[in-house]
From TrEMBL:
The lineage of its organism: Bacteria, Pseudomonadati, Pseudomonadota, Gammaproteobacteria, Oceanospirillales. InterPro entries: KH_dom-like_a/b (IPR015946), OsmC/Ohr_fam (IPR003718), OsmC/Ohrsf (IPR036102). This is OsmC family protein. Transmembrane segments: none annotated. It comes from Bacterioplanoides pacificum. Pfam families: OsmC.
Amino acid sequence: MKATIKWVDNVMFLGESGSGHTVVMDGPEDHGGRNMGVRPMEMLLLGLGGCTSFDVMSILSKQRQQVLDCVADIEAERADAVPSVFTRIHVNFTVSGKNLKQSLVERAVKLSAEKYCSASIMLEQGGVEITHGYTIVEVD
């Protein structure tokens, strides 16, 4: 896996993934940025959310659950001192669908957290406390 980060100006960068997709990263105006892209630490949270969401949806699909929507809301806390690393992250899934089994949704979230989500497991090994939760919304 490869990526390239190219400086544009001030604190704006373009990140290109090995698969050829580009994302803009920029800082806040009070740090010389123009607020035209996500911050690098926000990108880490997005990566974590995408990784675990991919797992949960894959597992629920294999379990033949009728998922109509899945949203992962992520809240993170960072250390006050430099480096301002993440200290705690909470991921809450809202899974909407028809006849969803609570035990299977719970199992999918747990398997992602403990076995499959490389981003989550890597951050935990680095000392970040990561918790997970879920809400099921039944759709008629």
